[in-house]
Amino acid sequence: MKRWRRGEGGWPWLAAGSVAVSLLMVAALVALLGARGLAHFWPADVELVTLSDGSRFAGQRVRHVETRAETQAKAGGGARTQVLYLTGNRDLDGQYWRWVDAERITKRETPAGLIVLERQRWGEFIGRLVALREDGATQLTRDAGDDALWQALQARLARVEALRERREWLRENRVAPLARRLAAGGEADSQSQHAELTAQLKAARARIADVQRALARDSLVLESVDGRRLAQPLGEVLAAWRPNAMSPFAKLASWGQRLWAFLSEGPRAANGAGGVWPAIFGTVLMVLLMSLIVTPFGVLAAVYLNEVARQGPLISLVRIAVRNLAGVPSIVYGVFGLGVLVYGIGGSLDQWLFSEALPSPTFGTGGLLWASLTLALLTLPVVIVATEEGLARIPVHQREGALALGATRYETLRHVVLPMAMPAMLTGVILAVARAAGEVAPLMLVGAAKLAPQVPVDGEFPFLHLDSKFMHLGYHLYNVGFLGGDVERAMPLVYAIALLLVLVIAVLNLTAIFLRHHLRARHRGPYR
């Protein structure tokens, strides 16, 4: 017992246990987000359910819950199990989900002929494929066999996807640039140039109309399991699969394709479907701009406070103020950015440089530039404190040795002090990046948009449009989870987007640890 008291005691075990618990909590969080989010993209089997009254429906089983009504509890009855199915077919049934009492289910089947269609409107369709039509005439029916009809559908879908890509290319690379040039008037000084641009724009729109007519040429005849039929334009079908007829490897391939589509496409259906590519791009671009702004100012401020300024009560007050700024709620920075940066500086820029565009604001409204500056102000105290702590840990004799060898104060700072403090600077910057990547409250005021499918980078000068609205992963998560009308549909997307945020922050922190270790080993001297 005396040896326990004189020694380290149980503190090392307590510290190790705390670290282990923290790691387990992080692993459990990532596992929960991964299981709930990534399972959404797996092509689950479609069940053909027969109820006790003889009615049937098809759907994918989502989950089951046990409920006990108040009357049952008073009578001592047991719990009742209810099963939630994703039935789709909202254009036929007016609903997307269906709760069923497990006691009413008499039979479950998984026939191979059931298909699932992902559509631009009305969500998924679950049922059977009856026929393929072209220009209103039936080309192939179910009499030819389900496999032949399915192969023909896949070929038509490939052609439709090529047409959609062609339409988007024409919109982005022909119509949009010509429309911007006509609106700006930069190259349309004469009537002949204006007429030429107008003719080119008209021709590009005519080509898009031809593609649109080609997309509307094909259609499908679909049938629900209860016999109701539906005519579906093939141009609105995004994907089709037969989950009950797919092998595990085919399901894994389909899962990978759907996951890639989630990461590489834009949102649709009021953010209730589609992908998150604009949000990923906007988040990364905003963080990069914020880092380019906050790093020099934060490092220079820390160098001045620790290396240049004469230490005294005033500098101590400045340090206290900087540390207090680190605890200010982020929404306060958002209000500051909206009032000072957007309305103040942005409004003045519009008056000076873009007066011909008023009252439509150019920089006097939220955008990428003001969001980056606001988050730079938010994370500036973090960079200053981390850099100053790194500078303070450098031994004094390192500076004195350099000065004794004839180096100037600037040369000492540049070649001795700053390289040794580089790990601390990098730590501060990465911590700032990790915090900025997850902030939402300021962005709601200074530039993040609920839906901005076009990224703020294109091939037109100046290539990077700082006045553009952009999407952010955190704000997109808020919109999907709390502003959507279908909670059940949004829930797996919320888990998937949250997993992306956690992974981004984890990668940034791991990168900081690796680079800090590398720089510390490079500039390590006899004193650590």
From TrEMBL:
It is a multi-pass membrane protein. GO terms for biological process: phosphate ion transmembrane transport. The keyword Transmembrane helix applies. One of its GO terms (cellular component) is plasma membrane. CDD domains: TM_PBP2 (cd06261). Signal peptide: none annotated. It comes from the Bacteria. One of its GO terms (molecular function) is phosphate transmembrane transporter activity. InterPro entries: MetI-like, MetI-like_sf, Phosphate_PstA. Residues 280-512 form the ABC transmembrane type-1 domain. Keywords: Cell membrane, Membrane, Transmembrane, Transmembrane helix, Transport. SUPFAM superfamilies: MetI-like. It is found in: Cell inner membrane; Cell membrane. The chain crosses the membrane at residues 276-305, 325-346, 366-386, 416-437, 493-515. Gene3D superfamilies: MetI-like. The keyword Ligase does not apply. Belongs to the binding-protein-dependent transport system permease family. CysTW subfamily. This is Phosphate transport system permease protein PstA.
